[in-house]
């Protein structure tokens, strides 16, 4: 407890003859000192807050970059009994011969580099594999099978809600289930153009659908190429699809290309087509030597955009 002596001066706001005399200059100096200290404290806390905010902002940006550029991993391998190797990719590999590996080696590499990978052998001619280990939260990867229809889907559909209603699906149905039902509608409601199925999809996506009952392959990429998809030919003549270009590069050599955006491939139709302009021809332009691909696919016609980046 602090005691105050009666002899101690007591400061009041009233003028008094007994009040201590303080020089104005001393008051000014004291006030300036307080102001300077307050300013320094304010400056210190401001910088501390900004530094903390900057650190959090930097961490958020790094997390976003990781989500956006995290490596992908899905793989589909199809023998010539399911799909004939595209002539354009065969020619690209012939122009610039480069080392290749077999489909089995490619699949083994995929599994070894992705410990949590799931692989499926569908008969003697089809192999599918995927992993969630390197999945991006902004571009999820999913797999489903129903009625012997297998589907690998990567991406997000912006109009999933309306498509659920269109196909009579429950609210719990995700993109991969929707894609299987859309394919069934394409298969069972003939003539139902494949371009209508993918043309109604809005968002970022790439998918591989294989119908085991009819040995039909159906592959597509979104119109802006937001989800990467590549295809190539292995040493033993399998057509390989993946979202990882580096994975296919070692197995396919120069028989490799970016799958054209805004396009689909259906073995039931028999050729590669643009779903925005189904009648427009798609040509393969030989790539430069320094590029990892052997060809670049483009959609012809004045109303068509380049099908690859």
UniProtKB/TrEMBL annotation:
Keyword NADP recorded: no
- Judging by the UniProt lineage, the source's domain of life is Eukaryota
Q: Which residues form a coiled coil?
A: none
Task: Domain (DUF3700): give its ranges.
Answer: 75-299
Q: What are the protein's UniProt keywords? A: Membrane, Transmembrane, Transmembrane helix
InterPro entries, per the entry: DUF3700, Ntn_hydrolases_N, TSJT1-like
Q: Which segments cross the bilayer?
A: 39-69
PANTHER family in alphabetical order: ALUMINUM INDUCED PROTEIN WITH YGL AND LRDR MOTIFS (PTHR45952:SF5)
Name of the protein in its database record: Uncharacterized protein LOC103483735 isoform X1
Question: Which organism encodes this protein?
Answer: Cucumis melo (Muskmelon)
């Amino acid at each position: 407890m602090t005691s105050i002596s009666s002899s101690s001066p007591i400061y009041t706001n009233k003028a008094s003859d007994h009040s201590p005399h303080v020089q104005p200059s001393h008051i000014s100096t004291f006030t300036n000192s307080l102001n300077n200290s307050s300013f320094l404290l304010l400056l210190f806390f401001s910088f501390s807050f900004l530094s903390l905010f900057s650190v959090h902002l930097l961490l958020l940006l790094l997390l976003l970059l990781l989500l956006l550029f995290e490596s992908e991993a899905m793989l589909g391998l199809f023998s010539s009994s399911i799909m004939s190797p595209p002539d354009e990719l065969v020619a690209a590999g012939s122009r610039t011969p480069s080392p290749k590996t077999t489909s089995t080696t490619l699949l083994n590499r995929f599994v070894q580099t992705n410990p949590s990978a799931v692989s499926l052998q569908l008969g003697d001619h089809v192999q599918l594999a995927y992993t969630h280990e390197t999945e991006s939260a902004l571009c999820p990867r999913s797999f489903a099978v129903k009625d012997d229809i297998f589907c690998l889907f990567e991406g997000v559909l912006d109009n999933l809600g309306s498509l659920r209603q269109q196909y009579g699906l429950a609210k719990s149905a995700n993109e991969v289930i929707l894609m299987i039902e859309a394919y069934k509608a394409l298969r069972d409601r003939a003539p139902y153009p494949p371009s209508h199925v993918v043309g109604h999809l809005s968002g970022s996506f790439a998918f591989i659908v294989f119908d085991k009952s009819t040995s039909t392959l159906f592959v597509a990429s979104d119109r802006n190429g937001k989800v990467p998809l590549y295809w190539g030919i292995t040493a033993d003549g399998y057509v390989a699809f993946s979202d990882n270009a580096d994975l296919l590069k070692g197995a396919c050599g120069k028989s490799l290309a970016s799958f054209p955006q805004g396009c689909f491939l259906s073995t039931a139709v028999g050729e590669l087509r643009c779903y925005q302009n189904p009648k427009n021809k798609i040509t393969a332009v030989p790539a430069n030597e320094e590029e990892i691909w052997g060809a670049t696919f483009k959609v012809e016609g004045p109303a068509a955009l380049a099908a690859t980046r």
